Amino acid sequence: MFAAFALTACSSASGPELRASNPLIYVSSRRAASDVFNCLEDRLPSVSTSKMGNTSELVVGPNAWLVTLTPSQYGSTVKVQKSAGDYGRLPEPEMRFNIARCTT
């Protein structure tokens, strides 16, 4: 159900730099991007959303986490990037749990 996890630390706090950072989590899911989006939107705190073409983004907290959802031929691809700043409302283990819950 998921193809790969990339475990790389990020070092950015601004929106454009956060988007350019290496993914902390990178997952392929058989679920449609819209289903994953709705699931995550319900579970994550302080979410703002945007859509660019067929790609959807969820920004959690003050640019703390960026979740990018892209439809694929077999479901969707989920990329999660994290800023270097601390956002105590959503620790990494909880983010990983929510991603796993919503992509399977």
Structural features:
globular, 104 residues, 5 strands, 3 helices, five-stranded antiparallel β-sheet
Give the topology.
Elements: H1 15-20, E1 25-29, H2 33-43, E2 47-52, E3 55-60, E4 65-72, E5 75-82, H3 92-103
Antiparallel strand pairs: 1-5, 2-3, 3-4, 4-5
Notes on the structure:
- The chain has 104 residues and is of the alpha+beta class.
- The protein has one domain (15-103): Double Stranded RNA Binding Domain, CATH 3.30.160.
- The protein is built from 3 helices and 5 strands; from the N terminus they run H-E-H-E-E-E-E-H.
- The chain has helices at residues 15-20, 33-43, 92-103; strands at residues 25-29, 47-52, 55-60, 65-72, 75-82.
- It has a 5-stranded antiparallel beta sheet with strand order 1-5-4-3-2, covered by helices on one side.
- Helix 2 packs antiparallel against helix 3 (92-103).
- The longest helix has 12 residues, at 92-103.
- The radius of gyration is 12 Å and the shape is globular.
- Mean pLDDT is 85; it is low at 1-12.
